[in-house]
Design brief:
The termini are far apart. The protein has 13 helices and 10 strands. Mean pLDDT is 80; it is low at 326-357, 426-439 and 458-467. The strands form 3 sheets. It has a 5-stranded mixed beta sheet. The chain has a 3-stranded parallel beta sheet with strand order 8-9-10, with helices on one face. 50% of the residues lie in helices and 10% in strands. Helix 1 runs parallel beside helix 9 (294-323). It is of the alpha/beta class. The chain folds into 3 domains: 1-206 and 301-327, no CATH class; 209-289, no CATH class; 351-457, no CATH class. The radius of gyration is 32 Å and the shape is elongated. Residues 279-366 are annotated as: Disordered. Pfam families: Phage_min_cap2. GO terms for molecular function: structural molecule activity. Residues 304-316 have a biased composition (Basic and acidic residues).
Length: 467
Protein backbone atom coordinates (compact mmCIF):
# COMPACT_ATOMS: atom_id res chain seq x y z
CA UNK A 1 0.00 0.00 0.00
CA UNK A 2 1.35 3.50 -0.74
CA UNK A 3 1.97 6.11 1.92
CA UNK A 4 -1.40 7.74 2.58
CA UNK A 5 -1.58 11.56 2.51
CA UNK A 6 -2.58 12.20 6.11
CA UNK A 7 -2.51 15.99 5.68
CA UNK A 8 -1.73 16.01 9.39
CA UNK A 9 -5.40 15.83 10.33
CA UNK A 10 -5.12 13.39 13.22
CA UNK A 11 -1.66 14.12 14.51
CA UNK A 12 -1.75 17.93 14.44
CA UNK A 13 -4.85 18.18 16.64
CA UNK A 14 -3.19 18.49 20.09
CA UNK A 15 -0.84 21.27 18.95
CA UNK A 16 -3.60 23.17 17.12
CA UNK A 17 -5.86 22.96 20.17
CA UNK A 18 -3.05 24.33 22.33
CA UNK A 19 -2.73 27.40 20.11
CA UNK A 20 -6.47 27.92 19.86
CA UNK A 21 -6.52 28.01 23.65
CA UNK A 22 -3.60 30.46 23.60
CA UNK A 23 -5.45 32.65 21.12
CA UNK A 24 -8.56 32.64 23.33
CA UNK A 25 -6.54 33.59 26.40
CA UNK A 26 -4.82 36.46 24.57
CA UNK A 27 -8.09 37.83 23.20
CA UNK A 28 -9.77 37.58 26.60
CA UNK A 29 -6.84 39.37 28.21
CA UNK A 30 -7.03 42.21 25.69
CA UNK A 31 -10.80 42.58 26.06
CA UNK A 32 -10.77 42.52 29.86
CA UNK A 33 -7.85 44.92 30.14
CA UNK A 34 -9.13 47.48 27.69
CA UNK A 35 -12.89 47.24 28.29
CA UNK A 36 -14.51 50.69 28.14
CA UNK A 37 -14.88 52.43 31.48
CA UNK A 38 -16.56 55.55 32.77
CA UNK A 39 -15.26 58.90 33.91
CA UNK A 40 -12.81 61.42 32.55
CA UNK A 41 -11.46 60.34 29.15
CA UNK A 42 -7.93 61.45 29.98
CA UNK A 43 -7.88 59.41 33.16
CA UNK A 44 -9.35 56.34 31.44
CA UNK A 45 -6.69 56.49 28.74
CA UNK A 46 -3.92 57.05 31.27
CA UNK A 47 -5.08 54.08 33.30
CA UNK A 48 -4.83 51.90 30.22
CA UNK A 49 -1.45 53.27 29.21
CA UNK A 50 -0.10 52.66 32.70
CA UNK A 51 -1.44 49.11 32.60
CA UNK A 52 0.60 48.45 29.50
CA UNK A 53 3.60 47.12 31.40
CA UNK A 54 1.45 44.60 33.24
CA UNK A 55 -0.34 43.75 29.97
CA UNK A 56 3.01 42.93 28.37
CA UNK A 57 3.83 40.71 31.32
CA UNK A 58 0.49 38.91 31.10
CA UNK A 59 0.99 38.28 27.38
CA UNK A 60 4.44 36.87 28.13
CA UNK A 61 2.98 34.62 30.83
CA UNK A 62 0.42 33.17 28.42
CA UNK A 63 3.12 32.50 25.83
CA UNK A 64 5.38 30.94 28.48
CA UNK A 65 2.55 28.60 29.46
CA UNK A 66 2.14 27.61 25.82
CA UNK A 67 5.87 27.14 25.39
CA UNK A 68 6.01 24.70 28.29
CA UNK A 69 3.35 22.46 26.74
CA UNK A 70 4.50 22.72 23.14
CA UNK A 71 7.59 20.44 23.05
CA UNK A 72 5.86 17.34 24.41
CA UNK A 73 2.82 17.75 22.13
CA UNK A 74 4.94 18.41 19.06
CA UNK A 75 7.31 15.55 19.74
CA UNK A 76 4.40 13.17 20.22
CA UNK A 77 2.79 14.27 16.94
CA UNK A 78 5.95 13.97 14.85
CA UNK A 79 7.08 10.73 16.46
CA UNK A 80 3.67 9.19 15.75
CA UNK A 81 3.83 10.44 12.14
CA UNK A 82 7.30 8.91 11.77
CA UNK A 83 5.95 5.65 13.13
CA UNK A 84 3.11 5.79 10.56
CA UNK A 85 5.59 6.21 7.72
CA UNK A 86 7.75 3.36 8.97
CA UNK A 87 4.74 1.06 9.31
CA UNK A 88 3.56 1.75 5.75
CA UNK A 89 7.05 1.17 4.35
CA UNK A 90 7.33 -2.18 6.11
CA UNK A 91 3.91 -3.12 4.74
CA UNK A 92 5.03 -2.26 1.20
CA UNK A 93 8.34 -4.12 1.42
CA UNK A 94 9.04 -7.79 2.07
CA UNK A 95 10.75 -8.61 5.36
CA UNK A 96 12.92 -8.96 7.27
CA UNK A 97 13.43 -5.25 7.91
CA UNK A 98 16.55 -3.43 9.07
CA UNK A 99 16.46 -0.66 11.65
CA UNK A 100 16.07 2.75 10.00
CA UNK A 101 18.17 5.81 10.85
CA UNK A 102 15.96 8.10 12.98
CA UNK A 103 18.34 11.04 13.32
CA UNK A 104 16.28 12.92 10.74
CA UNK A 105 13.30 12.74 13.09
CA UNK A 106 15.18 14.53 15.88
CA UNK A 107 16.32 17.24 13.46
CA UNK A 108 12.76 17.65 12.20
CA UNK A 109 11.40 17.98 15.75
CA UNK A 110 14.02 20.64 16.58
CA UNK A 111 13.41 22.59 13.35
CA UNK A 112 9.62 22.53 13.72
CA UNK A 113 9.82 23.53 17.37
CA UNK A 114 11.99 26.51 16.43
CA UNK A 115 9.59 27.49 13.62
CA UNK A 116 6.52 27.39 15.85
CA UNK A 117 8.29 29.13 18.72
CA UNK A 118 9.26 31.96 16.38
CA UNK A 119 5.62 33.07 16.48
CA UNK A 120 6.08 33.87 20.17
CA UNK A 121 8.40 36.74 19.22
CA UNK A 122 5.79 38.37 16.99
CA UNK A 123 2.67 37.94 19.14
CA UNK A 124 3.61 40.57 21.79
CA UNK A 125 4.10 43.22 19.09
CA UNK A 126 0.72 42.43 17.53
CA UNK A 127 -1.04 42.55 20.91
CA UNK A 128 0.56 45.82 21.98
CA UNK A 129 -0.19 47.40 18.61
CA UNK A 130 -3.85 46.40 18.97
CA UNK A 131 -3.92 47.70 22.55
CA UNK A 132 -2.62 51.13 21.55
CA UNK A 133 -4.75 51.31 18.41
CA UNK A 134 -7.96 50.61 20.34
CA UNK A 135 -7.16 53.35 22.87
CA UNK A 136 -6.44 55.76 20.04
CA UNK A 137 -9.69 54.96 18.24
CA UNK A 138 -11.71 55.33 21.44
CA UNK A 139 -10.11 58.68 22.26
CA UNK A 140 -10.73 60.06 18.80
CA UNK A 141 -14.30 58.79 18.79
CA UNK A 142 -15.13 60.48 22.10
CA UNK A 143 -13.46 63.72 21.09
CA UNK A 144 -15.53 63.75 17.91
CA UNK A 145 -18.88 62.36 19.04
CA UNK A 146 -19.05 62.61 22.81
CA UNK A 147 -18.70 60.26 25.80
CA UNK A 148 -21.08 57.56 24.55
CA UNK A 149 -18.87 57.00 21.51
CA UNK A 150 -16.01 55.64 23.63
CA UNK A 151 -17.67 52.32 24.44
CA UNK A 152 -18.89 51.89 20.87
CA UNK A 153 -15.41 52.54 19.50
CA UNK A 154 -13.77 50.08 21.90
CA UNK A 155 -16.24 47.31 21.11
CA UNK A 156 -16.03 47.99 17.39
CA UNK A 157 -12.22 47.85 17.45
CA UNK A 158 -12.16 44.72 19.63
CA UNK A 159 -14.63 43.03 17.32
CA UNK A 160 -12.58 43.88 14.23
CA UNK A 161 -9.36 42.64 15.81
CA UNK A 162 -10.96 39.42 17.02
CA UNK A 163 -12.51 38.63 13.64
CA UNK A 164 -9.19 39.15 11.93
CA UNK A 165 -7.25 37.17 14.53
CA UNK A 166 -3.67 37.62 15.68
CA UNK A 167 -2.14 38.13 12.26
CA UNK A 168 1.12 38.97 10.54
CA UNK A 169 2.69 35.54 10.11
CA UNK A 170 4.22 34.91 6.68
CA UNK A 171 5.29 31.55 5.27
CA UNK A 172 8.17 30.84 2.88
CA UNK A 173 5.91 31.52 -0.12
CA UNK A 174 4.91 34.96 1.17
CA UNK A 175 1.37 34.07 2.22
CA UNK A 176 0.00 35.70 5.37
CA UNK A 177 -1.78 33.82 8.16
CA UNK A 178 -3.21 34.32 11.61
CA UNK A 179 -1.46 32.65 14.55
CA UNK A 180 -3.50 29.45 14.71
CA UNK A 181 -3.53 28.92 10.93
CA UNK A 182 0.22 29.48 10.69
CA UNK A 183 0.96 26.99 13.47
CA UNK A 184 -1.49 24.48 11.99
CA UNK A 185 0.11 24.64 8.55
CA UNK A 186 3.63 24.43 10.00
CA UNK A 187 2.78 21.37 12.07
CA UNK A 188 0.83 19.62 9.31
CA UNK A 189 3.70 20.19 6.89
CA UNK A 190 6.14 18.76 9.44
CA UNK A 191 3.90 15.73 9.95
CA UNK A 192 3.80 15.07 6.21
CA UNK A 193 7.58 15.39 6.11
CA UNK A 194 7.96 12.99 9.04
CA UNK A 195 5.80 10.40 7.26
CA UNK A 196 7.65 10.74 3.95
CA UNK A 197 11.11 10.78 5.56
CA UNK A 198 10.30 7.76 7.72
CA UNK A 199 9.05 5.87 4.66
CA UNK A 200 12.23 6.73 2.78
CA UNK A 201 14.49 5.91 5.73
CA UNK A 202 12.96 2.45 6.07
CA UNK A 203 13.15 1.88 2.31
CA UNK A 204 16.82 2.82 2.32
CA UNK A 205 17.50 0.58 5.32
CA UNK A 206 15.94 -2.30 3.37
CA UNK A 207 18.10 -1.61 0.31
CA UNK A 208 15.80 0.51 -1.89
CA UNK A 209 16.64 3.94 -3.32
CA UNK A 210 13.84 4.67 -5.79
CA UNK A 211 10.26 5.79 -5.17
CA UNK A 212 7.47 6.82 -7.54
CA UNK A 213 5.05 9.72 -7.01
CA UNK A 214 1.28 9.35 -7.23
CA UNK A 215 -1.02 11.48 -9.36
CA UNK A 216 -3.70 13.61 -7.72
CA UNK A 217 -6.79 15.10 -9.30
CA UNK A 218 -6.53 18.88 -9.46
CA UNK A 219 -2.81 19.01 -8.63
CA UNK A 220 -1.27 22.47 -8.56
CA UNK A 221 1.50 23.74 -10.84
CA UNK A 222 4.14 23.19 -8.18
CA UNK A 223 3.71 19.46 -7.77
CA UNK A 224 2.09 18.39 -11.07
CA UNK A 225 5.49 17.96 -12.82
CA UNK A 226 6.38 15.19 -10.37
CA UNK A 227 3.29 13.03 -10.90
CA UNK A 228 4.24 9.53 -12.03
CA UNK A 229 7.94 10.38 -11.81
CA UNK A 230 10.60 8.24 -10.17
CA UNK A 231 12.76 9.94 -7.54
CA UNK A 232 15.96 8.92 -5.81
CA UNK A 233 15.97 8.91 -2.01
CA UNK A 234 19.72 9.41 -1.75
CA UNK A 235 20.19 11.44 -4.92
CA UNK A 236 22.85 8.98 -6.08
CA UNK A 237 20.68 7.62 -8.90
CA UNK A 238 19.64 10.10 -11.60
CA UNK A 239 18.84 9.73 -15.30
CA UNK A 240 18.05 6.57 -17.26
CA UNK A 241 18.60 3.32 -15.37
CA UNK A 242 17.66 -0.30 -15.94
CA UNK A 243 16.73 -2.85 -13.32
CA UNK A 244 16.00 -6.56 -13.73
CA UNK A 245 12.56 -7.77 -12.69
CA UNK A 246 12.10 -11.02 -10.76
CA UNK A 247 11.59 -12.86 -14.07
CA UNK A 248 14.92 -11.56 -15.35
CA UNK A 249 13.39 -9.09 -17.81
CA UNK A 250 15.10 -5.66 -17.69
CA UNK A 251 12.89 -2.66 -16.94
CA UNK A 252 14.14 0.81 -17.92
CA UNK A 253 13.15 3.94 -16.02
CA UNK A 254 14.24 7.58 -15.89
CA UNK A 255 14.97 8.99 -12.44
CA UNK A 256 13.91 12.64 -12.47
CA UNK A 257 15.77 13.95 -9.44
CA UNK A 258 16.32 13.39 -5.74
CA UNK A 259 13.67 13.59 -3.03
CA UNK A 260 15.44 16.65 -1.62
CA UNK A 261 15.40 18.46 -4.98
CA UNK A 262 11.75 17.62 -5.62
CA UNK A 263 10.84 18.97 -2.20
CA UNK A 264 12.82 22.15 -2.81
CA UNK A 265 10.97 22.63 -6.13
CA UNK A 266 7.53 22.44 -4.48
CA UNK A 267 6.55 18.81 -4.00
CA UNK A 268 4.81 18.33 -0.63
CA UNK A 269 4.08 22.01 -0.21
CA UNK A 270 1.59 22.79 2.60
CA UNK A 271 -1.63 20.95 1.79
CA UNK A 272 -0.06 18.72 -0.88
CA UNK A 273 -1.83 15.36 -1.21
CA UNK A 274 0.77 13.48 -3.23
CA UNK A 275 2.07 10.15 -1.98
CA UNK A 276 4.95 7.86 -2.84
CA UNK A 277 5.63 4.16 -2.94
CA UNK A 278 8.83 2.21 -3.46
CA UNK A 279 9.59 1.68 -7.16
CA UNK A 280 10.70 -1.81 -8.19
CA UNK A 281 10.92 -3.44 -11.62
CA UNK A 282 8.05 -5.69 -10.56
CA UNK A 283 5.91 -2.69 -9.52
CA UNK A 284 6.81 0.18 -11.85
CA UNK A 285 3.49 2.05 -11.90
CA UNK A 286 2.61 5.01 -9.65
CA UNK A 287 0.23 4.58 -6.71
CA UNK A 288 -3.41 4.70 -7.69
CA UNK A 289 -4.83 8.13 -7.04
CA UNK A 290 -7.86 8.62 -4.86
CA UNK A 291 -10.30 10.26 -7.25
CA UNK A 292 -12.58 13.03 -6.04
CA UNK A 293 -15.29 14.66 -8.08
CA UNK A 294 -15.31 18.38 -8.69
CA UNK A 295 -18.51 18.59 -6.64
CA UNK A 296 -16.76 16.95 -3.69
CA UNK A 297 -13.81 19.31 -3.91
CA UNK A 298 -16.14 22.32 -4.19
CA UNK A 299 -17.99 21.12 -1.08
CA UNK A 300 -14.67 20.91 0.78
CA UNK A 301 -13.81 24.47 -0.23
CA UNK A 302 -17.21 25.71 0.95
CA UNK A 303 -16.76 23.91 4.26
CA UNK A 304 -13.32 25.46 4.72
CA UNK A 305 -14.73 28.94 4.09
CA UNK A 306 -17.66 28.32 6.44
CA UNK A 307 -15.37 27.00 9.18
CA UNK A 308 -13.15 30.05 8.88
CA UNK A 309 -16.16 32.37 9.18
CA UNK A 310 -17.40 30.40 12.20
CA UNK A 311 -14.04 30.77 13.96
CA UNK A 312 -14.10 34.51 13.29
CA UNK A 313 -17.59 34.79 14.82
CA UNK A 314 -16.48 32.73 17.82
CA UNK A 315 -13.51 35.04 18.42
CA UNK A 316 -15.77 38.09 18.20
CA UNK A 317 -18.23 36.56 20.66
CA UNK A 318 -15.35 35.73 22.99
CA UNK A 319 -14.08 39.31 23.26
CA UNK A 320 -17.62 40.66 23.61
CA UNK A 321 -18.26 38.33 26.55
CA UNK A 322 -14.87 39.09 28.10
CA UNK A 323 -15.39 42.85 27.90
CA UNK A 324 -18.96 42.81 29.26
CA UNK A 325 -18.20 42.19 32.96
CA UNK A 326 -15.76 45.08 32.95
CA UNK A 327 -18.34 47.63 31.89
CA UNK A 328 -19.60 49.87 34.65
CA UNK A 329 -23.32 50.53 34.49
CA UNK A 330 -24.82 53.73 35.88
CA UNK A 331 -26.08 53.11 39.39
CA UNK A 332 -29.57 54.39 38.64
CA UNK A 333 -29.99 51.83 35.88
CA UNK A 334 -28.26 48.80 37.34
CA UNK A 335 -28.15 48.83 41.12
CA UNK A 336 -31.30 50.40 42.60
CA UNK A 337 -31.02 48.30 45.75
CA UNK A 338 -27.58 49.69 46.46
CA UNK A 339 -28.90 53.21 45.93
CA UNK A 340 -31.68 52.59 48.39
CA UNK A 341 -29.24 51.20 50.91
CA UNK A 342 -27.14 54.32 50.55
CA UNK A 343 -30.12 56.55 51.15
CA UNK A 344 -31.56 57.06 47.66
CA UNK A 345 -30.40 58.18 44.28
CA UNK A 346 -29.38 61.65 45.38
CA UNK A 347 -27.24 60.55 48.30
CA UNK A 348 -23.53 60.06 48.62
CA UNK A 349 -20.83 62.66 48.65
CA UNK A 350 -21.30 65.21 45.99
CA UNK A 351 -17.94 66.85 46.27
CA UNK A 352 -16.29 64.85 43.53
CA UNK A 353 -19.12 64.90 41.05
CA UNK A 354 -17.91 61.40 40.04
CA UNK A 355 -19.76 58.21 39.26
CA UNK A 356 -21.56 56.93 42.34
CA UNK A 357 -20.63 53.30 41.84
CA UNK A 358 -16.89 53.92 41.94
CA UNK A 359 -15.17 52.76 45.13
CA UNK A 360 -14.18 55.42 47.60
CA UNK A 361 -10.79 57.05 47.19
CA UNK A 362 -8.68 59.25 49.50
CA UNK A 363 -9.56 62.28 47.37
CA UNK A 364 -13.36 62.20 47.44
CA UNK A 365 -13.76 64.70 50.28
CA UNK A 366 -11.03 67.07 49.14
CA UNK A 367 -12.36 70.62 48.78
CA UNK A 368 -9.84 72.00 46.28
CA UNK A 369 -7.51 70.76 43.55
CA UNK A 370 -4.56 71.85 45.72
CA UNK A 371 -5.74 69.54 48.50
CA UNK A 372 -6.07 66.66 46.02
CA UNK A 373 -2.51 67.20 44.79
CA UNK A 374 -1.10 67.44 48.31
CA UNK A 375 -2.72 64.14 49.34
CA UNK A 376 -1.46 62.39 46.20
CA UNK A 377 2.08 63.66 46.79
CA UNK A 378 2.04 62.52 50.41
CA UNK A 379 0.59 59.06 49.69
CA UNK A 380 3.05 58.09 46.97
CA UNK A 381 6.05 60.40 47.40
CA UNK A 382 5.36 62.06 44.05
CA UNK A 383 6.10 65.52 42.75
CA UNK A 384 2.78 67.03 41.65
CA UNK A 385 2.20 70.09 39.51
CA UNK A 386 -0.73 71.99 38.08
CA UNK A 387 -3.25 71.07 40.81
CA UNK A 388 -4.54 74.63 41.19
CA UNK A 389 -7.68 76.71 40.77
CA UNK A 390 -7.46 76.52 36.98
CA UNK A 391 -8.31 72.79 37.12
CA UNK A 392 -11.74 71.27 37.66
CA UNK A 393 -11.95 69.60 41.07
CA UNK A 394 -13.53 66.55 39.43
CA UNK A 395 -10.67 66.28 36.90
CA UNK A 396 -8.09 66.55 39.68
CA UNK A 397 -9.87 63.88 41.73
CA UNK A 398 -10.13 61.48 38.78
CA UNK A 399 -6.48 61.86 37.82
CA UNK A 400 -5.41 61.37 41.43
CA UNK A 401 -7.65 58.30 41.72
CA UNK A 402 -6.12 56.77 38.60
CA UNK A 403 -2.55 57.39 39.77
CA UNK A 404 -3.37 56.13 43.27
CA UNK A 405 -4.92 52.94 41.86
CA UNK A 406 -1.97 52.40 39.58
CA UNK A 407 0.70 53.03 42.24
CA UNK A 408 -1.11 50.82 44.74
CA UNK A 409 -1.45 47.91 42.32
CA UNK A 410 1.94 48.37 40.65
CA UNK A 411 4.27 49.80 43.30
CA UNK A 412 7.29 49.19 41.05
CA UNK A 413 5.97 51.60 38.41
CA UNK A 414 8.74 54.10 39.33
CA UNK A 415 6.65 57.18 38.51
CA UNK A 416 8.22 60.39 39.82
CA UNK A 417 5.85 63.22 38.94
CA UNK A 418 2.33 63.81 37.67
CA UNK A 419 0.00 66.71 37.01
CA UNK A 420 -1.43 69.25 34.59
CA UNK A 421 0.46 71.64 32.34
CA UNK A 422 0.17 73.33 28.97
CA UNK A 423 1.02 70.86 26.23
CA UNK A 424 0.00 72.86 23.19
CA UNK A 425 3.10 71.71 21.33
CA UNK A 426 2.44 68.01 22.03
CA UNK A 427 2.64 66.08 18.75
CA UNK A 428 -0.26 63.77 19.64
CA UNK A 429 -3.37 63.92 21.79
CA UNK A 430 -1.93 61.41 24.22
CA UNK A 431 0.91 58.99 24.74
CA UNK A 432 3.47 57.91 27.26
CA UNK A 433 7.12 58.70 26.63
CA UNK A 434 9.49 56.29 28.33
CA UNK A 435 13.02 57.30 29.38
CA UNK A 436 15.87 55.01 28.46
CA UNK A 437 15.85 53.06 31.68
CA UNK A 438 14.70 49.65 32.83
CA UNK A 439 14.70 47.56 35.95
CA UNK A 440 15.43 44.20 34.28
CA UNK A 441 16.54 45.06 30.79
CA UNK A 442 13.06 44.72 29.28
CA UNK A 443 10.42 46.58 31.31
CA UNK A 444 10.20 50.35 30.94
CA UNK A 445 8.35 52.89 33.04
CA UNK A 446 7.11 56.43 32.48
CA UNK A 447 8.90 58.91 34.71
CA UNK A 448 6.43 61.76 34.35
CA UNK A 449 2.79 61.98 33.28
CA UNK A 450 1.21 65.29 32.31
CA UNK A 451 -2.30 66.03 31.08
CA UNK A 452 -2.82 69.13 29.01
CA UNK A 453 -4.31 71.65 31.40
CA UNK A 454 -6.81 72.90 28.86
CA UNK A 455 -8.47 69.49 28.89
CA UNK A 456 -8.71 69.48 32.67
CA UNK A 457 -11.57 71.91 32.16
CA UNK A 458 -13.37 69.67 29.64
CA UNK A 459 -13.88 66.00 30.49
CA UNK A 460 -14.69 65.15 26.88
CA UNK A 461 -11.15 65.71 25.66
CA UNK A 462 -7.77 64.18 26.34
CA UNK A 463 -4.49 66.01 26.59
CA UNK A 464 -0.98 64.73 26.14
CA UNK A 465 1.56 62.93 28.20
CA UNK A 466 5.05 64.29 28.36
CA UNK A 467 8.44 62.96 29.21
Amino acid sequence: MPLTPSYGDRRAGPVVRLYRRTERRLLELLAKTIAPGVGHLAVWALRLLMRLTRFRGDVATILDDTDRELPARLQEALTAAWRDGTTVARTDLPGPHAAADERALQRLIADTLASVRSTHQHVPRVMESAYRRIIDEAVRAEQTSGPAARARAVHRALNAFARQGITGFVDARGRRYDLVSYVEIAVRSAITRAEVDAYCAQAQADGHDLVIVSDVTGACELCRPFEGQVLSISGATVGAVSRAASNGRPVAVTVLCSIAEARARGLWHPGCRHTITVWTPDSPTPPRAVRRSEASRAASRRKFTADRATRARERAALVAAAAEPSRRKPVAASTPDRMSANGGGGGGNGASGGNANQPASPFDDAATPQEVGARLAQLHNLRVFGFDDGVELHAAQELARAIHDMMTKYPDADLESVGFRALDEAPTDYGVTYPDRSDDGTRRYARELAINIRYARDSRELGGVSK
